[in-house]
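Ticket reopened. Same input as before:
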Amino acid sequence: MKLLIVDDSNIIRSRIARLAGDSRMPPCQIVGLAKNGSEALGLFTQSKPDVVTMDLTMPEMDGIQCIEAIVALDPNVLILVVSALSDKATAIRALMKGAQGFLYKPFTDEQLIGALKELVA
Amino acid sequence: MAQDSQRFLGKYREIVLAVGFFLVFDLAVLVLNFYTSYQIAEDAVSINLAGRQRMLSQRMTKALLTLEADSTQGRPTETARAELKKTVGLFDGTLGGFRSGGTAVGGDEKPVALNAVKTDRGRQVLDDAYSIWVPYQQVLEPVLASPAVEPEKLAAAVQYARANNLKLLGLMNDLTTDIEQEASAKAQKLRLVQTLGIVLALLNFGFILFRFIRKLQESDRQIEQAQKETQEILTTAKEGLFLLDSQRRLGSQFSSSLPHVLRREIVAGAEFFPILQQMVPAATFDAARDYIDLLFGNRVKEGLVASLNPLSEVEVKVVDELGSSRSHFLAFQFNRVVADQQITHLLVTVQDVTERVNLTAQLAEAKGQAKIELEILLRLLSTDQAVLARFLGTMEQSLKHINAQFKSAAETGGEDLRQIVNHAFRAIHALKGESAALGLEMFETLAHEFEKDLVGVREKKVIEGDDLVKLTVRLNEFFERYTMVKNIIDRIAHTGQTSGSASVAAQFLDSMRKLADRIATSQEKQVQLSAELAGLDKLPEEVSGKVRNIAFQMLRNAITHGIEPPQERASAAKPAGGTVFIACKELGGGQFEFVLRDDGRGLVPERLRAAMVKSGRYSEAQVRALDDQQVVMKIFEPGFSTATRVDMDAGHGMGMDVVRDKIRALGGHLHLTSRPNQFTEFTIRFASELATAHGVA
Amino acid sequence: MSMSDITEQEIKVFLDAVDTYFSQITRERAAVRAAYLADGDHLPQTYDFTGLIAVSGQYRGCLYFSAPAVMLRHLLLVMEEPSHSDENFLDAVGEIANTLAGNSRKHFGETMAISVPVTMKGAPERIKSSVRARPYVIMVSWKKYNASLVVDIERND
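Engineering reply: fixed in the latest deploy. New output:
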């Protein structure tokens, strides 16, 4: 699968990227790392990923707007929201826009791998 | 699909086979019916024609006789001859048909098929008939051949006819009877087969019915069982359980606890959202509705959205019969029910988690308790405010000092945690003593709880940073209580309700008496206090405070360890009530002396040795190695106690070391004299001006 | 009996979060060194980088974790993160604050609303005013470094 990682935190991006190469993960190719929604949208049109991990609170274009735009381009894309948000209503809104799953930050390696596996199952 | 049909056949094979047999039997009976009716029609033709042969034999004779009569009387003979010719033709044709099969002319002049007669008797009858008929035909031939018949030939024919007419009739009769019997036998046989077929079909039908009913009953029973089990689950489950259909309506069945858990009437088939809307705030309701919509949709992964359930813990306000609003906490759980890859329902589980959540209630209770204590405190305030203010000052200093030590441990990391804990213990223990003396049970209890935690930490082999967290929480608790009381004192001071100021000595004696009474009562002892405290009022407040502090601690020890219970005193020929004498004298030259003496059991080195061994801190050999003087001095070491039980007044192994530290801080000297079963006397000499500032151990 | 609105168990929830973070990421636990109460005389100890979360709902106040740059540098090293920029140091304290938020959410549920973490470089001027009269300061050590966790939360009644 082709993976796009969207998060405004450097270390979260590099952590997810490192876990994408884990042996417990399904074969995975990282096609892009974006630190906000508009960057993500650009990378999405270029590389057509199958799976996107998406932070919600980001500068420029936030996660919800980005999900909406991405799903409009490709309704079959799988999106996992990865966020520290404690406001459930906002997270639910992200799902209404077309994301399939939600993972709370902070996450352990196992939690992220498990969530991505369940997402593509 | 092929597998499906196989499975289908497998399940219903018996029924399918039975129905198949039923159809086969029915069809067989039907075919037999056709065959029978055809056969009966054929037999009827044969019977009919055989009967006609009888009649033809007679008509033939009659026509011959008519011909003869016409001929004799000279009348034209054509009609009779024609009649004879026709009957002969018919008779011969039919007879031939009976013998070898073929067509004959029927009653309506049309040809009909005729089967050859096959029975032995029938063949015999035919053979007999032919043996008559062949000569008959021969004698008739000339008669039929020409119109001008020779009279001899006619006579010969008539004679043959007369001779054989009845025989031929009899034979034709026999033939008819034979065919009739044959047909009847055949019909009977067919009926038998037909009956058998019908019986088989009926049996089969009965079998099907029987099996079907059995099967239906069995499945009914299973359904009933399943329903019973479901019902049992629904009646016994503590959680509220129900199914939500895609129309967001409640299913027909739900657990009987559901109305209780939701605190409202529930009707099967009711719409869920209006119920929910009444229970939760609008924002939560909106989020919950979206969440439920998401679960009914196919897009989200159930396992990856469970953490977002807005109803995973939700506060619900209910107004009870009395009109007061109470809130409780509910936890909803939603699980998809999938049939044929379609999400048909959500299984909803509702639990009441009020107890788990409601820490606030406990807190409110604790606060309530604090308020009650405050009332007790307020009553006390009306008597001793100046003393209380001094006490609070001491308390603040002690608490701040403990915190400063905690902080230095946190910052430098080099501090010995055990030393810090020991220091805190002494400070809190001293606060406990003073609280008791002032009758401030609230602070006394608080100090006692703190002390218990400190003892717990001190007894650990290794004291860790984690332990300080617990102690810091206690410290905070003390600070908060202190602040609360301080605020109240200040408020009261502002309203000008200051009490008249009795002398320090008088207040002190009063406090000492209260403490003595309380300790004695709790230990079932009797104690009287006598005092000479003139020197106390001459001391500066700072020094006086320290002395009073030491006095409280020494009094506590004297009653707990020195004064014996009444029966023990009686057996030692002493008065039941013990006496504690306290004195504070000015010696001159800025020197003072404080004395505390009890008439108790005295310091007995052997008993002290036993206690030291029992505490586990010293071995038998170690205590033997010490002389009596050294043993007595051990009472000033941290952790030493001879009390057999742990309560607020003794047994925590701290007391005399606090005294020693306080005496050092005072810059004083301690003198101790004791006689077994007579007395123990502590004398402290000190200066009225503090030489060193704060000499903390 | 207790009048204290935050219990030892509740403070342990926050400490566990810090410990969990270090245990999960570095396989090395964070130990509590000591604890004290901050007040006018004793301000909470803070370091170069601070991650903070604010809470509301049945509680109010904030929680923050403050650590020196040298500790965070070592942490990034363990995490195989090559760039040791300020941005990544802030990310790291932010993630620890996230962990605090996560644990708190698990323990306190809906009764505590938790803000998105805020990260700061340098002395956190903004958090000088405290909710509690005496906020809890808990000193935590990981490897040979010290960091502080400040619990300045109160129950709303």
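The mean pLDDT of chain C is 84. Strands of chain C lie at 31-37, 49-57, 59-67, 112-114, 118-121, 136-142, 145-155. Please confirm and we'll close it.
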